[in-house]
Design goal:
Chain A: Pfam families: bHLH_ILI. The structure holds 2 protein chains of 2 kinds. Chain A is mostly helical. Chain A has 5 helices and 1 strand. In chain B, helix 6 crosses helix 7. The chains are: A mainly alpha, B mainly alpha.
């Protein structure tokens, strides 16, 4: 394992990357994704392009969620009135 | 902005113990809701968290929460001080909060990943210096993380194998990897394994960010509701 890693680390500048390494990375990525389907339960195989597609979608969703949350957070920070703002300020500081 | 990062770059024991002492009371509220919400969030704990325990540990959540609160405090102060007539538009405020949260997230990554460095470099605008110099050190860090991840994946009972990586579909896979690289900050021109590795780390960091901000929103909205409840609603 370590020999494969060191070999690939030297070759990372070129395009000669071992397929096993990419396999491992795709499997890791697949494990992170929310398991919506039953297709990965039934068979032990995942399609690389599907994993990548779902990853892109998932990252976009997460980004959008963070944007929405930050907007809500900014509204909440602005709109708390004075008594509660003092309370929150005492907690934040 | 440089002071923010230099403050947070102190050794973790010192800075975190002092900051968590300040916000210890808040953390007891804050840590209970993220841990319980993490327990209730259906997919998170059943998934394999062993491969990258970094972003799922309680300690990491505390570190990030403390940094996030500091960053938000700075956003609040700057927006209140610079507000001329009325406050700036909601989008600008939301963007400022998002940027502060991303900065806090990137600092919590301790500079080991490309995307975190790219986020910080974009803020400080030292783009060329920051990206060129750490490039040589990123490869050993990536390989050690990937090794630990792969060995733990070998121990799982259910082996998942990847199909569709044959020569014919390689251009399609490459295209998708490129588009994935455009989504992750700082990975537009990286090679395929680097992009995949960065994406796994980035996804977990984003998930932690979502959890932390959710908890913060719940906490604040619990305080904002007028009248009876002085404690945040139990989740």
């Amino acid at each position: 394992m370590s020999s494969r890693r060191s070999r690939s680390s030297r070759q990372t500048g070129t395009s000669m990357i071992s397929e096993d390494q990419i396999n491992d990375l795709v499997v890791q990525l697949h494990r992170l994704l929310p398991e919506l389907g039953n297709n990965n339960r039934r068979s032990g195989k995942v399609s690389a392009s599907k994993v990548l597609q779902e990853t892109c979608t998932y990252i976009r969703n997460l980004n959008k969620e963070v944007d929405d949350l930050s907007e809500r957070l900014s509204q909440l920070l602005e709109s708390t009135d004075s008594a509660q703002a003092a309370l929150i300020r005492s907690l934040l500081m | 902005m440089a002071s923010l990062t230099s403050d947070n770059e102190q050794p973790p024991t010192n800075s975190n113990s002092s900051s968590t002492d300040h916000v210890r009371k808040k953390k007891s509220l804050f840590a209970s809701s993220p841990s319980s919400s993490r327990g209730n969030a259906a997919s998170v704990p059943t998934r394999d968290g062993d491969s990258h325990p970094r972003w799922r540990s309680e300690k990491q959540q505390r570190i990030y929460s403390a940094k996030l609160i500091q960053a938000l405090r700075q956003v609040r102060l700057s927006s209140s001080s610079s507000a001329t007539t009325s406050s700036p538009t909601a989008q600008k405020r939301g963007k400022a909060v998002r940027e502060a949260a991303d900065r806090a997230l990137a600092v919590s990554a301790r500079g080991r990943t490309l995307w975190s460095r790219a986020i910080l470099a974009n803020r400080i605008k030292l783009k060329f210096r920051k990206q060129k110099r750490p490039r040589q050190t990123v490869i050993p860090a990536v390989t050690t993380v990937v090794t630990t991840g792969a060995t733990s994946s070998r121990g799982r009972k259910r082996r998942v194998s990847v199909v569709g990586l044959n020569k014919k579909s390689l251009p399609t896979v490459n295209r998708k990897v490129r588009s994935l690289g455009r989504l992750v900050p700082g990975c537009k021109k990286e090679s395929v394994p680097v992009i995949l590795e960065e994406a796994t780390d980035y996804i977990q960091a984003l998930e932690m960010q979502v959890r932390a901000m959710n908890s913060l929103v719940e906490l604040l909205s619990g305080y904002s509701t007028p009248g009876s409840d002085s404690a945040p609603p139990p989740i």
